[in-house]
Design a protein that fits this description.
The complex is a heterodimer of chains A (410) and B (483). Chain A has 410 residues and is of the alpha/beta class. Chain A contains 13 helices and ten strands. Chain A has a six-stranded parallel β-sheet with strand order 3-4-5-6-7-8. A two-stranded antiparallel sheet of chain A has the order 1-2. A two-stranded parallel sheet of chain A has the order 9-10. In chain A, β5, α4 and β6 form a beta-alpha-beta unit. Chain A is globular and about 75 Å long. The C terminus of chain A is likely disordered. Chain B is elongated. In chain B, β14 and β15 form a beta hairpin. Classes of the chains: A alpha/beta (410), B alpha/beta (483).
Chain lengths: 410, 483
Amino acid sequence: MTAPTLRRKLEILADAAKYDASCASSGSVKRTSLDGNGVGSTDSGMGICHAYAPDGRCISLLKILLTNFCVYDCAYCINRVSSNVPRARFSVQEVVDLTLGFYKRNYIEGLFLSSGIIRGADYTMEALVRVARTLRLEHDFRGYIHLKLIPEASPELVAEAGLYADRVSINIELPREESLSSLAPEKDSRTIRKAMGGVRLAIESGAEPARKARPRRFAPAGQSTQLIVGADAASDAEILDRSAGLYGSYGLKRVYYSGFSPIPDGSSRLPPARPPLMREHRLYQADWLMRVYGFGRGEIALDGGMLDLDIDPKLAAALRDRGDFPVDVNRADRERLLRVPGLGVTGVDRLISVRRYKRLTLEDVKRACRSLAKVRPFIVADGWSPGALTDSAGLRGLLPKERPRQLELF
Amino acid sequence: MQVVRLASETDFDGWRAAARRLRKTATPPETVFWTVAPDEVLMDGTPTGTAGEPADKGRGQSGDFRVSREFVELARSVVLHRSPERFGLLYRLLWRLEAEPDLIRIVTDPEVARAMDMAKAVSRAAHKMKAFVRFRRLEGVEPESYAAWFEPPHRVLERVAPFFIERFANMRFSILTPDATLRWDTETAVFGPGADPSAAPDDDALEDIWKAYYASTFNPARLKVAAMTREMPKAYWRNLPEASLIPGLIASASARTTQMVEQAPTQPSIRARKAAARLARDGSYDDVPQTLDEVVAGIQICRRCELWREATQGVPGEGAAQARLMFVGEQPGDQEDLAGRPFVGPAGQLFDRALAKAGVPREQTYVTNAVKHFKHEPRGKRRMHSTPDAGEVRACRWWLDSERRLVRPRVVVALGATAALAVLGKPTPIAANRGRAIPLPDQAQALVTWHPSYLLRVPDEAAKAKAWEAFVADLGMAWGLAG
C-alpha cells in the first residue's frame, strides 16, 4: 500500500471535519505581526470569511482533523469506527506547513483543528496541542487557532491548549441526554459538562486583572459547542431549552445548530436523510432573538414544541401577541421597537437617532429598514395607522412570502 | 459654472480645500462642476489647478464654519466610491449643513441616505478585499516574495493597506490593482500607479491543494447557491482560483446527495465489531454505599430527581472522613457546580471567614449540601439560583443520610431552612430554633443556623453585623458541642 499524497490526505481529513458547522474567526484579541517574527493578525471584532462554498458556508479557517481514525462509534458521525470511509493521518509538520502556506496566500484566517480519538484522550489531545505549540512558538504564528478539546483529557493539557488557542470547543452533538447514550455510547455528557465548566473557570480567572505580570489569556475568543438537529427526536423547545442552559452555565460564545446531514457510508442505526435546513435556519433565528434582541424563552412562539417553518420566529411571535401591536415608532422604547417584525437592530437604532430631530413618517421607516411590507401592519407612524389590519384574520396571508432559498435543489 | 479639477480620483484633501473655498465664497452646489485631472498626474503628485489651496489657510475668518467629525469621516469614505457624482454630492451636503447642522444624523434624508449607501459600499469593498486577495509566490525569488492581482469595486487599496501590512509584516508582498499598487518590503510601504494583470504571477503550486480543500469542505447535501453568491459576488470570481470549481460542484451535488441517502450501510470491519463490545457505562446506584468513595461515584450518576439534567456535575461533601462536626448547606451554587466542590463561591468564602473567626478548622469538619446538584434557571447569559423543592430534598436524603452514616458526626449543623428540612425531616424555622441542640435519632445532635448566603443578603448594615456575630457564635457553639 503506498502512502497517500498530501492532497489525498487533505481531501479525506477536510471531508471528515466539515460536519462541524463552526468556522468563526471572531471575538479574539487584537494582535499583529509588526513586533514579531512570523505572520498573522487577529481582530477583536468580526472575523473574515475568505471564501464561500456552494453550501453557503463561510470558509474562514483551515478546518481539518489531525486524523479520522477513531475508536468511538457515534452513529451520526462520518468517522465512527464502524464506518468504512478511507482513513488518513497528518503529521504535525504537514498541518503546520499547510496552515502557514495557506495563510501566506491569504486563503484563511487560521486553523481549526480537531481529531478522531486514537489511543486515548491524552494521546490525542497532546497531538493537537503539539500542532498549536509549534505554530505559536516555533513560527510565531499570530493568526487564529480554534482547537477541539477532548473532554477526558488531563487538565494540564487543556490548560496548555487554552494558552495557544483563541477559541476552544467541545461538541454536545445530541440535544437529548438519552440519545447520547444510545447513539454515541462512548461519549459521556457528564464529562463534557465538567470540561465545559472547567473551561469557563479558566477563562474567567484569565479575564480577572492580574496581580503580577499577566500570563497569556486562556482562549480569549471563548468556547462554543454544536447541537445536531434532526438526528434524535428532540423538539425545537427541547433544543432551545438546552442551549439557553448552555449559554447560562458555561458562558458560551455560540451554540451552533447543524442539521443532520447524510454522510458517506451512513450507519444503519441512523438512516441518512436530507438535512432539515429550514428548521436549522429557524433555530438560529430564535437563538439570535434570545441572545441579541433580549427575547425571553417564553416569548418564542412554538406550536407543539416546534418553530413555524414558513415564517420567521419574530413574525410568529408578533402574530401570536397582536395585542402588543401596533407600536408607535415615534414613542416606543427600543425594546418594543426590536419586537416589530422586519425591524432589525440597525434599523431601530436609526429610527431612534432620527426621531430626535423630526417626526417619523412611513417614508422614514422605509429608508431605515429597506422594506415596509412586513413592518407596516405592526406600526403607527406620522400619517400612518394600520387600523384593523393588525388584527385582521388574513394578515398572515397578506405578508410577503419568504422564499425558501435554501431548498432550491430539491 | 466653476470647474474644480482634483489631483486624483481619491483626492480627499483637494476636495476639502476646494469645498472650503467655494463654501466661503457662497458658491451654490449647482454651479460647480467637479472633475479629476488627466492621468499624467500621479498619486504622489501635487494637486494642480484650482483645488491646490493649502488646507489651513483662512481658518477662523468670517464665513468659516465647522463640520462634525462624523461628516469628515463619511466624506473620506465616499470619496473612495467609483460614482462620478460623489464630489458633487458631498459638496451639496456640506452646503446644506449650514442651515441644517444635524443633517448628517437624519439618515432618512435622501441625500444623506445616498452618501451613507456609498460609504457602506466602500466599507464592504474594503472588507471583501481583505477576504478575497489571493497571493501567489514569485517562483525562484529569495527571500520568499508574493504578489496578488485584485480588482476592487471601489478604490480601497490605501484604506486596506494597513491590514495587510500588520498581518504580513515580515513577508515581502505586492498588491496590484487597476487603480494603484502597494509594495511592502518588510519595512516600507510604497504606493504606485495602477498596474496590469500580467505583472502578477499566473500560478502557484499550492493553488491545487487549496482547491482540493475547497471542494472537500463543501457539503453537497446543503446546496445554497444564493447564500454563497450573496457573500461572494460573481464579480470577484475571476481572481479567485477556487471559483473555477463552483459550476462542477453545483452540477454534481444532487447526484452525490442521492447516492449518500440511498446507499445501503456497509458492514463494519472486524476491528470495529471488536471495539463495539464494551461494558455498560453506568453502574447501579441502588445499592447502599459502603464508603464515601461510593457516595462520590454514586452522586455522579444519580437520577433520583431531574436536577442532574441541567447541572454540570453532582457535588459531594468533602472533609475529614471521621469528622465530629458536619455542616450541611442547601445546594451547590454556580461556582460549586463548575468546580465540583462545596462552599467555594461567595457564600463559601464568607463561611470560611466565619469559621476562622469562631476558631473552627474547616479541614477537621465535613462540609456537604442537602441537595447535590445545582438547581437554577437560565436568565440571559447567567443562571439564577432556585430553591430545591421538598421532593428534591427528599430524593437527595439518600446521599445525605449515607454521608451521615459513614462519617458519624456528633453534631450536624443545618445551614438554612432547606438543610434543616433535610436534617430534621420537617420544616424548622431558623430564628425560633437556633442556639439550642436538637437530638437526632442516631444519637447525634443537630443545630440550626442561617445559611451564609443569607448574611450576604441582609440589607441593613447594623442588622448584618448582628447576624454575623450570632452566626459566628453558632459555629463556635457547634464546635464546642462536638469537642
